[in-house]
Amino acid sequence: MWEVARRLRAASWVDLTHRFAPGQPSFPGDPDETVETVSTVDDGAWVQRFGLIGQWGTHVDAPAHFAAGGRTLAELPVRDTVLPLVVLPLADVAQRDVDLEVTAAHITAFETEHGRIPEGSFVALATGWSRRWDEPGDAMHNPDAAGVFHSPGWGVSALEVLAARGVVAVGHETCDCDPGVRVSAGDLRAQRWWLEHDGWMIESMRGLAAVPPTGAMIVATWPVPEVASGFPARAAAVF
């Protein structure tokens, strides 16, 4: 395996993770992060206490987030933290249609050009939305004058195809799995479907524009509380 490690160090790496901090974009109504200094170097060591929800920043959602009795983070096998990575390049489409819902037709079109999505892979939706992360206001949710969100997301029909392919996990740049219009109405049908069918996901990803549609792999890690439905994650693409 040392030869594999040598090759990986020589490969291209792209960080897919936002740094998290108080005041960052988040799901509507979620409490903000708090940070407290417990001690400083002058006291002997710099120690901080963080107060945040599990679904904060770039984070992993386990099935238990929506599915009663579903797998928790501790029950996701460690071998699934390294997977083949497929990137659906739909940024141009999302720029034209901010309400884009990714459907089975989008998966079919991708496979026509790039080949069948492999079993045991991670499929990430690249919409270019992460460019909005540091913009002022609520650019990630992109609300209109009536407060209705306008952002792209997954449709159930696309996730059904991915599940049939044996895909392990999905990811996206938006704060939410579903298109914003549905999120505004409290309709999280796509996220619920995926988690209830034992998949897991990473939300609020970045850097996907720099990753090829096929041929890369994802390395995704997170802390493992005894019982948890989600936690901030560190993810990277390697190719």
UniProtKB/TrEMBL annotation:
<dbReference type="GO" id="GO:0004061">
    <property type="term" value="F:arylformamidase activity"/>
</dbReference>
<dbReference type="GO" id="GO:0019441">
    <property type="term" value="P:L-tryptophan catabolic process to kynurenine"/>
</dbReference>
<dbReference type="Pfam" id="PF04199">
    <property type="entry name" value="Cyclase"/>
</dbReference>
<protein>
    <submittedName>
        <fullName>Cyclase</fullName>
    </submittedName>
</protein>
<dbReference type="InterPro" id="IPR037175">
    <property type="entry name" value="KFase_sf"/>
</dbReference>
<dbReference type="InterPro" id="IPR007325">
    <property type="entry name" value="KFase/CYL"/>
</dbReference>
